[in-house]
Amino acid sequence: MLHRPNWDDYRFVLAVARSGSVSGAARELGVNHATVLRRVAAIEARLGVELFEKSVRGYEIAPEKLRLIEAAREVEAAVGAVERLAQVGDTALAGVIRVTSTDTLCAYMLPKILAHLSARERDLSFELISSNLHVDLARLQADVTVRPTYKLPDDLVGEVAAQMRFGFYARSHEIPEDRWLGLTGAIGRSHAAHKLREELERRKVRFTAASDSFMSLKALAEEGMGRVLLPTFLGNSSPDLVKLEPLIELPSMPIFVASHADLADAPRLRQARKRIAAALAAQEPHLLGVAA
To answer: Which residues, if any, are the signal sequence (predicted)?
Structure first.
């Protein structure tokens, strides 16, 4: 008869999944390296599957095992919240939710949202991953992405939570019209950056400086280095910047709250997305730059 692994077995698997290494899991659990190897090998043997791909980068979750790992994480969350009752019509959230977004949203919007959610659910904690680059949700580097984009990649499933706008700013109206800051890297591939670049090339204007971060561009503009395109909630937050007449008209940009397609229906992640999306919707006036 097949011996069923108990919850303690899964703790070792999830620790390796979180840290990406046996040594990291050992530190987290307070055991030695050999114990982790033995417990992971044992559960893989019992289940008849290989949960991890071993590479020079460490232990990575095999893509086809994402659902199994998330199921184990739901068990972990349920064990942590076993004495709690869900509110009527609402599911309690527990465990660790990894949220990734742009550096600007991570700094200016998400901390307050996540703090509010965490205050409501004492068994819930977050990892906030700030990156303007694509974070690979297929490897469980994150559970939920908050992404400003006009269209989600095919491997993500989610909904539009709110809209945001861009505006044009400078330290003063006296900054010359031929002094501009450019957008590079991931933000430089956005629709707004592309339209701005087209217009400035048409006017034969060269950038005086550039950055791959809106927060860095804001700081450069505050030093008087040039005019800049910024999310309105970021530009409006600066007492050192004034809003300029639009150089070009830009449509508002949707902000999606999404998960990897293979995990989008996991109850815990679906509930997390729902609550983050609702909190973002409440902030839409600030994101659109129309809040008082």
So the answer is: none
